[in-house]
Give the backbone structure.
Amino acid sequence: MKLNYFTKQLFTVKRWMATTLFCMLAIAFVWQGAFFSNTSAMADPAGTLIASADAGDEVKDKTSKDAGRAKNFIQDTTDKVKEAARSNASKVDQATDDNGSFVERKAKKDAATIEKRANEDSARTQKAVDNTKNVVERTVDSIKDAFGK
């Protein structure tokens, strides 16, 4: 029996639907812990709460450390951008013979604009890092409060 185009497409859709259903069921079983159940945690829930409080402190410490690293990286990048702008303006200055030429003034103006935007972008990005760190810390605190009560 030779399959026509419509029948082939129908079999393909059925196969995809069966695969999707199988994957979703597998995820649901794993999510619900049907295969990997930890019954010792059910016997003494206070032990897990203490561990979660310690985990919350670890998350907050790691978040602070990572935020500091990110801010240092942002500052280093800002400094490199500024140095590149100054270097390019200096090269243009050395390449032009007459002082105060249009090209030289334009290069200096562009360097100043680049430095200004680098500072603004750096400040905005560092503020976003701080906001993200604060959101994570507030979330950890609210989770700890929810389990503490």
Remarks:
- The mean pLDDT is 78.
- The two ends are 68 Å apart (CA to CA).
- The CA atoms of residues 19 and 32 lie 20 Å apart.
